[in-house]
Write a structure and sequence with these properties.
Layout (H helix, E strand, L loop, with lengths): L1 H16 L6 E10 L3 E2 L2 E2 L7 E10 L4 E10 L4 E14 L5 E10 L8 H4 E10 L8 E7 L5 E15 L2 E12 L11 E15 L2 E12 L9 E13 L1
Antiparallel strand pairs: 1-4, 1-14, 2-3, 4-5, 5-6, 6-7, 7-8, 8-9, 9-10, 10-11, 11-12, 12-13, 13-14
């Protein structure tokens, strides 16, 4: 059943690309962040900053994209996570879009690496309305290997442009953990509430985005303290 689900997602992605303009577009992003907070979990417990670069390849108007994402910790000065994301996005109307995909998580540089123990795989599906005022969206993630469980993310946001080339954005999200990466016997529940603010400056193909976030941890199994974290994103888009 799990294999059929993965193959179905890949098939839909390839079906979308077969009827489209294959003009490629690259997105390069470099994030410098004070903490690595993920779904309420503190994944860099020494409270050191991280560097998280990524590269995304979009196959023109097909809706298909492939993303390579990495996390480098300044705590141990090592590359400690490498992820691959295959996704398909379809815009159903001017206001409504759907997205689905597959995520491969890899912790390749741990001692005595074993593929079955140090990787995990997740499928996800998302629906959103990014063009309306509060930009509501819902995403469901399901990890079918080591994380074994689901996670639901509800998101909203508001953006405006106070002056030309500057965009201010406010965001909020609420996560529900249905057993993903939790100890056996732990009850599921709302896990994290996040609020954030960012200021984006566009200069030709480059965007510079400083941001700040605060995460309220709602589930004891995830952590005992809340987190304030901030950083800056550099995004460069190149069309081929």
């Amino acid at each position: 059943m799990r294999k059929k689900l993965v193959f179905s997602i890949v098939f839909l992605c390839l079906l979308g690309i077969s009827h489209s303009n294959l003009l490629a577009e690259f997105h390069f992003q470099a994030d410098f962040i004070s903490r690595y907070i993920w779904r309420g979990f503190d994944l860099n417990p020494y409270k050191k900053p991280v560097f998280q670069p990524s590269m995304e390849y979009e196959f023109g108007n097909s809706g298909l994209s492939l993303n390579l994402w990495m996390s480098f910790s300044f705590a141990n000065k090592e590359l400690n996570e490498t992820n691959f994301i295959l996704a398909y996005t379809r815009k159903l109307s001017e206001q409504f879009s759907l997205k689905a995909g597959l995520i491969h998580y890899g912790w390749y540089f741990v001692p005595n690496f074993r593929f079955e123990d140090n990787t995990s795989h997740e499928v996800f599906a998302s629906a959103g309305m990014p063009e309306i005022v509060l930009q509501p969206a819902i995403t469901i993630f399901y990890d079918f290997t080591n994380g074994d469980g689901f996670y639901v993310l509800l998101e909203t946001g508001y953006s405006f442009e106070p002056v030309k080339s500057f965009k201010t954005s406010f965001s909020a999200s609420l996560g529900y953990n249905g057993g993903q990466w939790l100890a056996e016997g732990t009850d599921p529940g709302f896990s994290d509430l996040n609020i954030g603010i960012s200021l984006a400056y566009a200069w030709n193909e480059l965007r510079i985005i400083p941001f700040a976030n605060y995460t309220f941890v709602l589930l004891d199994a995830i952590g005992k303290e809340n987190h304030f974290w901030f950083g800056i994103s550099l995004i460069y888009e190149l069309e081929k």
